[in-house]
Amino acid sequence: MELTATTVSVGLFMVFLGLLYWYSVSPFSKLKRIGIKHPKPFPFVGNMFLFQKGFFEGHQELVQKYGRVCGYYFGRRATMLIAEPEMLKQILVKDFSNFVNRMKVVFSSKPLIDSLLFLQDADWKNVRSVLTPTFSSAKMREV
């Protein structure tokens, strides 16, 4: 077998296409591995097309079709959707120390990055320890 420039180019192009396909679908096995039901994602974009009507409608559709604990891929990022009140209470109150950080936003500027929604690690724990007594059940009853 003789190697020519054409066969080497075609071979490299096939390797490139294989690697591109692997890169586009490689993160889409996380939810299946942990047993979370989810719609089949499209390469590179995941399930972004579910949210053409809006996030609330897309989430409602997911809960109706896949159950109260399901997931989806927003781009290449795996996201779990929990619509079970007792499980949310367990995660947000009792097991808070295991779920500290929020989603990281890469392209945000200084005022937005310091907002409550995007705080990370020790900053978030500090703000939460200040805010938690404000929303206790006794104070909420007073309101």
From TrEMBL:
Keywords: Endoplasmic reticulum, Fatty acid metabolism, Heme, Iron, Lipid metabolism, Lyase, Membrane, Metal-binding, Monooxygenase, Oxidoreductase, Transmembrane, Transmembrane helix
GO molecular function: heme binding; iron ion binding; lyase activity; oxidoreductase activity, acting on paired donors, with incorporation or reduction of molecular oxygen; steroid hydroxylase activity
Compartments reported by the entry: Endoplasmic reticulum membrane
UniProt record, GO biological process: fatty acid metabolic process
Pfam families: p450
InterPro entries registered for this protein in UniProt: Cyt_P450, Cyt_P450_sf, Cytochrome_P450_3A
GO cellular component terms listed in the entry, alphabetical order: endoplasmic reticulum membrane
Bilayer-spanning residue ranges: 6-23
Family: Belongs to the cytochrome P450 family.
PANTHER family membership: CYTOCHROME P450, CYTOCHROME P450 FAMILY 3
Protein name (Swiss-Prot/TrEMBL): Cytochrome P450
Upper classification of the organism: Eukaryota, Metazoa, Chordata, Craniata, Vertebrata
